[in-house]
Amino acid sequence: MKALAIAATGVRRLFRDRQAAFFTFVFPLIMIVLIGIAFGDEDTARLGVVAVDSGQLGEELVSALEQTEGLEIRRFDNEDDWREAIERGEVEAGVLIPPGYDSQLHSGGQVDLPFLLRPDGLGDTLWLPVQATVEQQAELIRAALFAQSERGISFDDALAQATELRQNLPQVTVNFTIAGEPERALGRFDTGVAQQLLLFMFLTSLSASDHLILSRQLGVSRRMLSTPTAVRSIVFGETLGRFAVAMIQGLFIVLASIVLFGVDWGDPVAAGVIVVLFALVGTGAGMLLGTLLKTPQQAAAIGVFLGLGLAALGGCMVPLEVFPETMRKVAHITPHAWALDAFGMLLRRHGTLADIRPEMVLLAAYAALLLFAATWRFRRSIAG
Amino acid sequence: MLGNGIILECRDLRKTYGDRVAVNGVSFSIRRGETYGLLGPNGAGKTTTISMICGLLERDGGTVVVDGKPMSPSAVDAKAVIGYVPQDLAIYPDLSARENLRFFGQLYGLSGKTLSARVDEVLEVIGLADRANDRADSFSGGMKRRLNIGIGMLHSPRLLVLDEPTVGVDPQSRNAILDTVDTLGGQGIAVLYTTQYMEEAERLCDRVGIIDEGRLKAEGTRRELVALVGQRDRIALSAQGDLEATARAVSALDGVEQVNRHEGGLDLFVKDARRMLPQLLSTVANAGASVSAVEVVEPNLEAVFLHLTGKALRD
Description:
The complex is a heterodimer. By secondary structure, chain A is mostly helical. Chain A has helices at about 1-15, 20-40, 55-65, 80-90, 100-105, 125-150, 155-170, 195-205, 210-220, 220-225, 230-260, 270-290, 295-315, 325-330, 335-350, 355-384; strands spanning about 45-50, 70-75, 95, 115. Chain A has a 4-stranded mixed β-sheet with strand order 2-1-3-4, with helices on both faces. The longest helix of chain B is centred in the middle third of the chain and has 16 residues, at about 170-185. In chain B, the strands form 3 sheets. Chain B has a 6-stranded mixed β-sheet, sandwiched between helices. Chains A and B meet through helix 1 and helix 10 of A and helix 2 and helix 3 of B.
């Protein structure tokens, strides 16, 4: 009970600091958005389509585009809105199916389909699937026109027969086989979300070490010892408070990324275990720093330096895959790298608890070592 | 409780830091409801002594028994008897007065309605009820000091230990703090009060221990301490009339050791000025003199400290 009071006060004090609250909750989300926008890939690209008065063939083309894998179709009622949406980046590219599309094709005329894309290059990748879908419809129309002219039947009948015949034609199928374990395609914001989670959890834990130093400087820790509270309760309460802060932040980032950005963290139990273990690592590191340093100013400076430095080394700023082999090995002296390996397994490869057992063991070892050293030093600092 | 109503008994307390002996064989006891002052300059060993008494510091030797319970850093039962008010402002500046009190109240084992009621009571006693929800870092130095004291009173301790609670406090707040301590003494709470201010010890304490260089040089009531150094009270009488006859009359009184006559009055050296003042004034009136002013000058603890240690309190 007393340990809970100490822990709750620690949490209340940290979150009362508006600046700390901003860097704990808001700033990580801003970073996830920025990184998602800058580097994220999406499974589906958005294609704007205008098909006003384009007739049945126009609607069939829209329907075919909607069934094309990797395309998300957004329809517009007029060309101005469609063009503006492309310019604003609301869609990556757009196709305009002109009025009279159906009648023009019925009469054997040629129709041009304007394809508009943004200058940032994201729309380039849409050209091929759009072209392939349009080509499929064009093949049928060419066949229908040929049958109409050769057999004298109506265009609609010829088109229906061509459509039926195509279903019976032998298909050429290309089978893909991916070497190695298949990776799940990541959404735009899935990229970097684990890195940001670890970076900010660790940074907050280290920065919060100044509260421990301030309590010692003010004599509050010593005063706690004068109350009928066992030393172990004081140590446990302070540890629990810091762990609670790390967990609140970690869970907030995870849940916010799911709700706001649709991030898929994979196996929720396994992801939860990694967050808990990394929160314990951060708690131990923050408390150890708080017992080693003398002033809050030192804690702020060294905490940020260590927090960012270890995050960079551990692959939270540049993906570990980009590191040379030697650097990748060096990176694994940090708990960040092990946690990233675990999240990589969950996010990209549908991993489960069993798949991340080595990472869990190592993170637990880091946590145990740091917490042991931190609580031992903290106990000494208040009880002599 | 210990025998004879003793709530705190320290015997032969010792503490050494490296080669430096901080506390060297300090022994004293405090009775229930008694206010005991530990008077000494900076570095005399006061804070180290009370740190051992409150279980904040391991002793190198000696015993501390609080309300019959032996004290040590792990003695939770003994600590429940004591309210400790450190010299530092050991409060969270980013919490309100109420939040600080509630936090420490929980550590003293209070909860629920009892905790809320005690917090409200203490806020009234320390005069912070109207600022209860303001952050402590918005308080004046005196208000912070009062909050610091209030935390020690939360669980209605039987022994309140205050370590120089008026250091760095303005005169008005100092008076408020002294009044509070005075009131607590009147409520039957034993108080151990360390100070380097002779006036505080004289005003508040039933008994005073004089400590210097880690040793308790002497202890007793103010009068007992003054008696140790053989000094007497002085009464300066401003009077008119037959001063010669008056001097002869008062010289004959029991307890008057010396009478000096001068123009405008008499100076008398007596054993206990307060006790004999009524008899003295009656004798002067009967001798035919009229008194216009009386000044009583008693030897103070400063003089006792000087006598015992060879130096002034704030050397």
